[in-house]
Amino acid sequence: MLVSYQWLKNYVDIDDLSAEDAAERLTRGGVEVDMLHIRTEGVEHVVVGYVEECSRHPEADKLSVCVVDTGSAKRTIVCGASNIQAGQKVVTAEPGAVLPGGVEITTTTLRGQESQGMICSLQELGVEQKLVAKEYQDGIYVLSDDAEIGADAVAEIGLRDTVLELDLTPNRPDCLSMLGVAYEIAALLDRDIVHPDTAHKESAEHTSGHVSVQVDVPKDNPFYGVKVVKNIVVGPSPQWMQNRLTAAGIRPISNVVDITNYVLLEYGQPLHAFDLDRLGSSEILVRRAAEGEEMTTLDGETRTLSSEHMVITNGKEPVALAGVMGGATSEVQDDTTTVLLEAAYFQPARVRKASRQTGIRSESSIRFEKGIDSGRVEEAAERAASLLETYAGGEVLQGRVEVDHRPSENKKIETSAGELNGLLGMNLSEDDILSIFRRLRLPASAENGVIIVEVPTRRPDLEREVDLAEEAARLYGYDYIPTTLPSGVTTPGFLTDRQRRERRMRRFLESSGLNEALTYTLTSREHSSRLQLHTLPGKVDVSLPMSEERSTMRTSLLPQLLDTVQYNRNRQINDAAVFELGSIFIGESGGELTKQPQEKTVLAAAVTGWWDTHLWQGEKKKADFFIIKGVLEGLFNELGVASAVEFVRSAHTELHPGRSADIYLNGVYAGFTGQLHPSVEKEWDLKETYVFQLDMDLILSYDAVSVFYETVPRYPAVTRDIALVVDDGVPAGKVERVIKEAGGNLLHDTSLFDVYQGENLSAGKKSLAFSLVYLDPDRTLTDEEVSRTHDNVLKQLEEEVSAELRK
Amino acid sequence: MIDRLQELGREALEEIKQADSVKALESVRVKYLGKKGPITEVLRGMGQLSEEERPKVGQKANDVREEIKEKLEEKTEQLEKAALDEKLKAESIDVTLPGKEVKQGARHPLTAVVEEIEDIFVGLGFQVTEGPEVETDQYNFEKLNLPAEHPARDMQDSFYVTTDMLLRTQTSPVQARTMETFEGQGPVKIVCPGKVYRRDDDDATHSHQFMQIEGLYVDKNVQMSDLKGVLEAFVQKYFGADRSIRLRPSFFPFTEPSVEVDVSCGICGGKGCRVCKHSGWIEVLGAGMIHPNVLEMSGFDPEIYTGFAFGMGVERFAMLKYGIDDIRHFYTNDIRFLNQFKRA
């Protein structure tokens, strides 16, 4: 809502308050003023000039040379406007004048003719092109004959004004009107309201003689009223009215249309003027549209309607889409003489549906959607009639024809000082509260401590006691609410075990050198089929996506992490190590969801480029499988599940077949790791890149192995190193497992310290060297005991993996 | 003989003096103090001496030996020190050369902010709860007092996945879900962080995906002044003890009264500057007293229980805290951006 400050002064005495101060009061009171627009800001020294002579420029057909009396001087000014004529009073910028944007006017020469200034259009004074009345859109503005020569032209036109742009919350549709804003500021300042003048003469002829009204849908349309105004002369509306409309962002059209818009702004009551002679009947019937019924709206578009839409008809065909837009056929035109004025109350939801479905958002639909004052409909109609009489020469016929199904009684809310104070933590007296309700013009009475408020129709947002509490608090001032701490029982605050483990996980990965990334959840269909944890039954698609790129919920974190790596590569950042912890979304096999989709927490990472470098010392190590595996092993250790984890060669088709592993936790698949398949790297334009993706819901469902102190060994350990020759295909992990199983309790630790292939070994063989540490925490082991176990280890190795001791 | 010993002593000392290595010293030691050395030789001839002379010569021989030993040790030490000095000198490095960097990743700034805020509220006795990102219409809207025809429920503003499921537009449904688990028994003190989604075109100040933290406090006799007190405690902990808050009336369907919470500007101290758009205040939170309809729908009797709720945008808090000017940075993951938050 755009509020002209000058106009607002018509309804409430705020001459002592600057627009800035009023804006601050409104904002602190809950009606937020988003911005102040000073109309014609920066315009200086522009005066009313009188065009004494006007002749064609000798060198240019389209230019005129004018002699303009500006009161202080007679100026010769070259003007390019086609509507310039001698005898006009015009907006004149003399040399030294300033126009919006700091444009300074000087004496110039145009085609050999000196021009001492400029004759201005409204646009040149800063009025938006789309708001300028048609007759002045392509030329200069012409002032009325009674304008005083030499006077400040901006003031003379009535453009010295500040416009308050309100950012209204949906509960305050009452402030979509000048009167509503006036009520608000009057309440804040405790001042009187001056109501608009609705008086007009009435002819002996009665409206009911010209038109009948029938409403088939009283639920959608609780009130429909019409007035008829005859003998109208269509022409421009007065300048002050035009100024007020343009301040509100509405373009002046003609007196009839402008008056309906003016009353719409004044009362928040949308009105529609039909040309009664073009209506096609003398009957108004309000009904739902038939499925597929068509009508052409004012904007010339043909609309196909549905039974969800409400239409105003002439008994046969639609003449308006109720509350949204009028029809083209019955539109008021220059030759219109009899106007049928509609003033109705339409249900918000019905109008909202029509507005959404047709895509028309009009000043009218905006107001009906949010809810107008159902009690001010008739008054607005009478106000419009009054203005039509004064500014369009109309003769107002007697009475209205109307169908009324509105509830007859206003809602009442009960409260008390005790209740309000209890909720607010304040200490207001009953008198304080009653005084606030009086300022808000909410009829209220108190008896035996009970306050009863009768809610006027202009405030449908007031529904129950808490709404009154808000009114009391905001009028009294939120600054006066004390600051206290809750008096109830104290409760312990804590993070759950899972939340703490997620934090540990993040800390571990950060300190391992990975940056945490956050990517968008919505992704493309293409991405949603890539690098999945496992085959998913279905996806979760957005019904009306904004773009293909954001059309479905992610099923893997990796595609977007790879995008991230690529994004950085495109900016010459070739070393990247990023991880993300987030949800993937699992749909259903049928496609359509029948219940909320499963959201699985996964952890993914991508690592590429140099990992460990110390350049001047010549140390450079690229990320490889064992680096990312080391991070994972550390992570599993951190989470207390390391002993349950197993890495098994993976068959994931998007991973390098020789450098990837599936990860199992107690035999259950929990994710994968490895190098991306070179074809995937190529697709994303990446160099060698290693990734992992883990099912964290699964992993965190395992309890961490608890930390429990073991005695520090007091007896010496015995270390035996062995080099084993095995077939190339035997995994080291398997050999190690055999050693551990055969070593039993005495085998305290095993570590692989060399892997060798090549010279001195036959083809297809490799050598693995392990260091085995034997220890008994309770005594010193004898050589024989160690040998007995060690021999068993060697025997098992030979049996299970055909390992030979390397000689 | 004594003269001879004296002579030998002098010779030995001279040779020690001349020696330039530990090895040379060793040969001096062997030469003079060895079993076949000249001093032993002299002593062997002692048999020819008189009873009186013998102890004197013996004494002299010992003295000479001791002196040689002493000088040998002294010189050895000297030489060893010189050798060590030489070695240390050779091992010297340029200490201004850069050390090896310990690889360290950064926390995402949004995570840093979420965790800090969680910690403050945990300290105030709150727990942290989470909920699904794909929500039902019922929890995202209806249970929050936004019935089917409410204007704020515009299809155009949300990402629907079916007619009655959508990507949550706020973290408030978690509040409704959590409240239900309490089965009408307070107190409930929770904060709910999470991702939310709205149909906005991404630009410097808008993002179709962003993060919110909402909080809820339901108990008997909770008053609006308590809301003010708790939020002031929070704001002073997060932004600094010198900051103050003010409440402005606002509107949210799930609270009544509703407020916007401003914090005094930390740049200008409230005098007005570019950051606070010359108002001295920066809007940081939305809050209010939980609407009785919402309490009722989540199983709490509004005649017995009252409560307050608040919500904040994590991106906004991060932008204010770190001076970030474009919301898209959070989701672009430029390494040069992320690396700046290692200490966050």
UniProtKB/TrEMBL annotation, chain A:
Residues 713-806 form the FDX-ACB domain. GO terms for cellular component: phenylalanine-tRNA ligase complex. GO terms for biological process: phenylalanyl-tRNA aminoacylation. It is an enzyme of class 6 (ligase). The keyword Cell membrane does not apply. Residues 408-483 form the B5 domain. Its EC number is 6.1.1.20. InterPro entries: aa-tRNA-synth_II/BPL/LPL, B3/B4_tRNA-bd, DNA-bd_dom_put_sf, Fdx_antiC-bd, Fdx_antiC-bd_sf, NA-bd_OB-fold, Phe-tRNA-ligase_IIc_bsu, Phe-tRNA-ligase_IIc_bsu_bact. Pfam families: B3_4, B5, FDX-ACB, tRNA_bind, tRNA_synthFbeta. Keywords: Aminoacyl-tRNA synthetase, ATP-binding, Cytoplasm, Ligase, Magnesium, Metal-binding, Nucleotide-binding, Protein biosynthesis, RNA-binding, tRNA-binding. Its cofactor is Mg(2+). One of its GO terms (molecular function) is phenylalanine-tRNA ligase activity. Mg(2+) binds at D461, D467, E470, E471. Residues 40-154 form the TRNA-binding domain. It catalyses: tRNA(Phe) + L-phenylalanine + ATP = L-phenylalanyl-tRNA(Phe) + AMP + diphosphate + H(+). Binds 2 magnesium ions per tetramer. PANTHER family: PHENYLALANINE--TRNA LIGASE BETA SUBUNIT, PHENYLALANYL-TRNA SYNTHETASE BETA CHAIN AND LEUCINE-RICH REPEAT-CONTAINING PROTEIN 47. HAMAP family: Phe_tRNA_synth_beta1. Tetramer of two alpha and two beta subunits. Belongs to the phenylalanyl-tRNA synthetase beta subunit family. Type 1 subfamily. This is Phenylalanine--tRNA ligase beta subunit. It comes from Salibacterium qingdaonense. The lineage of its organism: Bacteria, Bacillati, Bacillota, Bacilli, Bacillales. The gene is pheT.
TrEMBL record, chain B:
Residues 111-320 form the Aminoacyl-transfer RNA synthetases class-II family profile domain. Its main location: cytoplasm. Residues 58-89 form a coiled coil. It is found in: Cytoplasm. Its cofactor is Mg(2+). It catalyses: tRNA(Phe) + L-phenylalanine + ATP = L-phenylalanyl-tRNA(Phe) + AMP + diphosphate + H(+). InterPro entries: aa-tRNA-synth_II, aa-tRNA-synth_II/BPL/LPL, Phe-tRNA-synth_IIc_asu, Phe-tRNA_ligase_II_N, Phe_tRNA_ligase_alpha1_bac, Phenylalanyl-tRNA_Synthase, tRNA-bd_arm. PROSITE patterns: AA_TRNA_LIGASE_II. Keywords: Aminoacyl-tRNA synthetase, ATP-binding, Coiled coil, Cytoplasm, Ligase, Magnesium, Metal-binding, Nucleotide-binding, Protein biosynthesis. One of its GO terms (molecular function) is phenylalanine-tRNA ligase activity. It holds the Pfam family Phe_tRNA-synt_N. It comes from the Bacteria. Belongs to the class-II aminoacyl-tRNA synthetase family. Phe-tRNA synthetase alpha subunit type 1 subfamily. Tetramer of two alpha and two beta subunits. This is Phenylalanine--tRNA ligase alpha subunit. It comes from Salibacterium qingdaonense. The lineage of its organism: Bacteria, Bacillati, Bacillota, Bacilli, Bacillales.
